[in-house]
């Protein structure tokens, strides 16, 4: 009974902490980044991006603290942990919840370069968050339907050009590029609608990952294949975190080399496209087995 009564207070504490810390750190990033609008000099912009990146790490620490703010949190991290802040990585991860972002921030703020996400264009108008992400050079992707492209062929490939320009900026600051390959959060409805061949995952989309490797493959030191599991999946992980009921998070990390056969033109080379698609599907087969194993071990 007491635990139930405490839930509203936990939600208020966690939500307020996330809101205030995001607001303060976001405003600091924006203030640091304002000169980017006034001084379009590459050397100055790189320096500003470095400062903004350091402040962004503070947000990572704040979100990491949130996991233990109102709950006794236990982390179960398997696999590789010898990572470095001055390296470049690309993460391919499954996507269960918005909490996934906080999990990856928890991992990154200690021994990885700060991550960059590919964001929906609409988020650029989000108060504080939009300008903050722009300052950090995160790509805002604007999707076009087939009808829009048919009416205006110039829209064809514009997302690719946006990604290309942003990836060029990542070359100057150690960066972790994050790709949720499923393209959206997992739900049973989406799982059924896509007729997924995997038990716990949606089918991965290969284009974005392949293109990032094509643009930055020579610069990435490794690919990090990360699998995230929330054992108590009956309720959304966001609610579990806010209400202080998310007690365990399981993370498996595997470091993969950036092999030559993973770099190619996914959109123009049909043979490479088939090969890369098969490679990514095999990674998802492995992820599915990891999730099944973790859930099986927990249920014992």
Automatic annotation (TrEMBL):
Molecular function, one GO term: acyltransferase activity
Domain Phospholipid/glycerol acyltransferase: start-end pairs: 89-231
Transmembrane segment boundaries: 12-35
Keywords: Acyltransferase, Membrane, Transferase, Transmembrane, Transmembrane helix
Name of the featured protein: Acyltransferase
């Amino acid at each position: 009974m007491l635990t139930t009564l405490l839930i509203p207070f936990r939600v208020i504490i966690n939500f307020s902490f996330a809101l205030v810390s995001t607001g303060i750190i976001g405003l600091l990033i924006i203030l640091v980044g304002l000169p980017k609008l006034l001084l379009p000099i590459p050397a100055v912009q790189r320096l500003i991006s470095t400062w903004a990146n350091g402040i962004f790490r503070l947000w990572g620490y704040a979100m990491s603290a949130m996991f233990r703010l109102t709950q006794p949190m236990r982390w179960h991290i398997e696999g590789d942990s010898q990572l470095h802040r001055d390296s470049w990585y690309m993460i391919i991860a499954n996507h269960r919840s918005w909490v996934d972002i906080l999990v990856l921030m928890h991992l990154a703020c200690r021994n990885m370069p700060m991550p960059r996400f590919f964001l929906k264009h609409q988020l650029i108008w989000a108060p504080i968050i939009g300008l903050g992400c722009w300052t950090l050079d995160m790509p805002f992707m604007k999707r076009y339907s087939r009808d829009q492209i048919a009416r205006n062929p110039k829209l064809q490939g514009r997302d690719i050009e946006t990604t290309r320009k942003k990836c060029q900026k990542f070359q100057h600051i150690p960066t972790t590029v994050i790709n949720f390959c499923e393209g959206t959060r997992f739900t049973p409805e989406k799982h059924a609608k896509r007729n997924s061949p995997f038990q716990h995952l949606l089918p991965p989309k290969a284009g974005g990952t392949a293109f990032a490797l094509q643009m930055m493959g020579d610069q990435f030191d490794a690919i990090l294949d990360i699998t995230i599991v929330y054992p108590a999946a009956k309720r959304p992980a966001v609610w579990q975190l806010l209400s202080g009921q998310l007690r365990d998070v399981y993370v498996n990390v595997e470091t993969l080399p950036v092999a030559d056969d993973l770099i190619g033109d996914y959109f123009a080379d049909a043979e490479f496209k088939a090969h890369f698609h098969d490679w990514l599907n095999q990674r998802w087969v492995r992820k599915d087995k990891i999730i099944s194993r973790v859930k099986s071990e927990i249920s014992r």
